């Protein structure tokens, strides 16, 4: 009896401009329970919204798709160049059923980085060859199942955090959801102020618009207003019956109004009505304020492991805001007038990835 033929996979760059290829990869991601950041739709939105190009790699075995590595080619004069999986996301990495296919995709990413003179390949999840650098303990993710109804959801929040939510519910605030221009403008105004207050440059509004335009019903904005003034707002993604509040924040006045607490509770109830069963509170840096906030809501931290590779003799880029070298810059950014921060921020942030 002849031994079965073993097909060596063909590794090549994906052409997401080809609708058929993009749809095939979308189907592969769905069949393999990939993350939202594995979706070609995400890469396309990032490319359109930030100007960074898509460089995804696919493995084909026996003429069939066997592996996928979504890559954003992120570059800027301030931070250098990197291939990131996935750009501007908190997840990604190689999606493949076979370990050898995953390794081949990583090796192909090394070659691509060399041709592009990129300082590093960064995988936010998945597996990587043993000679890559593993980064763990810096971030954790927070996710939990949604409750069956509004009251049960409220009671599932630990007592101290629940008391803050109840204070927010007592204030005369209005809550809206949508993707219209009024929703987008309110979200950007709130989010830009929020990240400026944290000392972080804001992403270009074109990024938020691109995600909303491409994701359709799989993304929306929930905004909390005091009168006509938006005080808290979050842009959320929906994927595999899970809601992910991804870009959110509040103004200074949101604190006294408990508008952020109100916002996340309202999002939980809104997502359940949409058919979601899980709430993914997202990634936070270990030991940070958001990390503590999510723990106080009863979410259990799940440590995240990332991987990184750099060409020999090349130092990887450093975009870690907790690095001591950035402390003075962050302090300065917090003092910038908001119009100045909003003018400079998008130019800087589109190179972070």
From TrEMBL:
InterPro entries for this protein: Acyl_CoA_acyltransferase, BioF2-like_GNAT_dom, PEP-CTERM_FemAB-rel, PG_Glycine_Bridge_Synth
Domain of life: Bacteria
Domain BioF2-like acetyltransferase intervals: 160-294
Stored PANTHER family: LIPID II:GLYCINE GLYCYLTRANSFERASE (PTHR36174:SF1)
Name this protein carries in UniProt: FemAB family PEP-CTERM system-associated protein
Organism the protein comes from: Qipengyuania citrea
Highest classification ranks of the organism: Bacteria, Pseudomonadati, Pseudomonadota, Alphaproteobacteria, Sphingomonadales
């Amino acid at each position: 009896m002849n031994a079965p033929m073993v097909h060596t996979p063909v590794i090549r760059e994906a052409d997401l401009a080809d609708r058929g290829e993009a749809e095939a990869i979308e189907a592969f991601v769905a069949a393999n329970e990939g993350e939202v950041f594995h979706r070609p739709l995400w890469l396309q939105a990032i490319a359109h919204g930030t100007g960074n190009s898509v460089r995804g790699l696919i493995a084909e075995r026996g003429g069939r798709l066997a592996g996928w590595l979504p890559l954003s080619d992120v570059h800027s004069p301030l931070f250098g160049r990197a291939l990131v999986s996935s750009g501007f996301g908190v997840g990604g990495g190689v999606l493949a059923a076979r370990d050898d296919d995953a390794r081949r995709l990583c090796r192909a990413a090394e070659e691509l980085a060399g041709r592009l003179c990129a300082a590093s390949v960064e995988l936010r999840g998945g597996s990587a060859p043993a000679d890559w650098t593993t980064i763990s303990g810096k971030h954790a993710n927070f996710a939990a199942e949604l409750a069956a109804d509004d009251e049960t959801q409220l009671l599932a929040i630990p007592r101290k955090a629940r008391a803050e939510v109840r204070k927010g519910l007592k204030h005369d605030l209005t809550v809206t959801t949508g993707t219209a221009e009024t929703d987008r403008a309110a979200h950007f105004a709130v989010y830009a102020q929020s990240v400026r207050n944290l000392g972080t440059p804001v992403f270009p509004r074109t990024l938020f618009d691109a995600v909303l335009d491409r994701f359709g019903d799989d993304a929306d904005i929930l905004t909390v207003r005091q009168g006509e003034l938006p005080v808290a707002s979050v842009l959320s993604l929906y994927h595999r019956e899970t809601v992910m509040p991804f870009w959110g924040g509040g103004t200074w006045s949101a604190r006294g109004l408990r508008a952020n607490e109100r916002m996340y509770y309202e999002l939980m109830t809104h997502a359940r009505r949409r058919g979601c069963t899980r709430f993914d509170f997202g990634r936070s840096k270990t030991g940070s304020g958001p990390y503590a906030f999510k723990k106080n809501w009863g979410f259990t931290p799940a440590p995240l492991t990332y991987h990184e590779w750099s060409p020999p003799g090349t130092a990887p880029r450093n975009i870690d805001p907790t690095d001591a070298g950035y402390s003075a810059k962050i302090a300065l950014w917090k003092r910038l007038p908001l119009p100045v921060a909003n003018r400079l921020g998008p130019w800087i942030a589109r190179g972070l990835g």
